[in-house]
Amino acid sequence: MIELCLASASPRRRELLASIGVDVDVQPVDIDETPLRGEAPRDYVCRLAREKAQAGADLIASRLPVLGSDTVVVRDDEILGKPRDQRHAAAMLRNLSGRAHEVLTAVAVTGLAGLLETCVTTRVSMREITEQEIQAYWMTGEPADKAGGYAIQGFAAIFIERIEGSYSAVVGLPLFDTAQLLQRQGVALWSGALNGGFA
Ligand SMILES: Cc1cn([C@H]2C[C@H](O)[C@@H](COP(=O)(O)OP(=O)(O)OP(=O)(O)O)O2)c(=O)[nH]c1=O
């Protein structure tokens, strides 16, 4: 039974939810993703997750809970979203090469319990990446639709030395924290966890 609407075009988010037993109706939304002047990265991702969830709720006819989410890479307080083109992607990877950065993923869920939200920070350490690797990586097609221009779940795994935090959050949805929000909204997870935690 479908118990959740996913306000997202991201196949990763749909697959991550399926992995904990949550099938969704998909309702992509189109919101303005321009940061506000002086907006802190954390405030920005939280606002976008909320706006996606609310835009989804406004579009659907049913009263299903609606989940919106946003992921950004942050380096020295600068928000790195999706690359505009190859040059931009290369510049992002040069900036991340040989250092640690943070990945922020916010999740918001509308429902009977009101609008619930959370934001998860994961620290990702990358080894140094050569110019040749940067150019070759673009050709894989992977960077184009990913925050920071890389995919930890893909070829970029060979660049990532260590993470501290949530792997699933880097891929697009922190599963532990998301499960807690969904249970508070009464959404059933895999069958053994129907009423887990917050019943
Ligand atoms: C850092 C990183 C990001 N990503 C993805 C997660 C997000 O899908 C994407 C960041 O863009 P988002 O704007 O968060 O999401 P989206 O445009 O894919 O989907 P929607 O707005 O419709 O919900 O980057 C990875 O898949 N792997 C990674 O290692």
UniProtKB/TrEMBL annotation:
Keywords: Cytoplasm, Hydrolase, Nucleotide metabolism. GO terms for molecular function: dTTP diphosphatase activity; UTP diphosphatase activity. Its EC number is 3.6.1.9. InterPro entries: ITPase-like_fam, Maf-like. SUPFAM superfamilies: ITPase-like (SSF52972). CDD domains: Maf (cd00555). Its cofactor is a divalent metal cation. GO terms for cellular component: cytoplasm. Coiled coil: none annotated. The record marks 12, 71, 153 as: Important for substrate specificity. Signal peptide: none annotated. It holds the Pfam family Maf. The keyword Cell inner membrane does not apply. The keyword Cytoplasm applies. It catalyses: UTP + H2O = UMP + diphosphate + H(+); dTTP + H2O = dTMP + diphosphate + H(+). It is found in: Cytoplasm. The active site is at residue 70. GO terms for biological process: nucleotide metabolic process. Belongs to the Maf family. YhdE subfamily. Nucleoside triphosphate pyrophosphatase that hydrolyzes dTTP and UTP. May have a dual role in cell division arrest and in preventing the incorporation of modified nucleotides into cellular nucleic acids. NCBIfam families: maf (TIGR00172). This is dTTP/UTP pyrophosphatase. It comes from Pistricoccus aurantiacus.
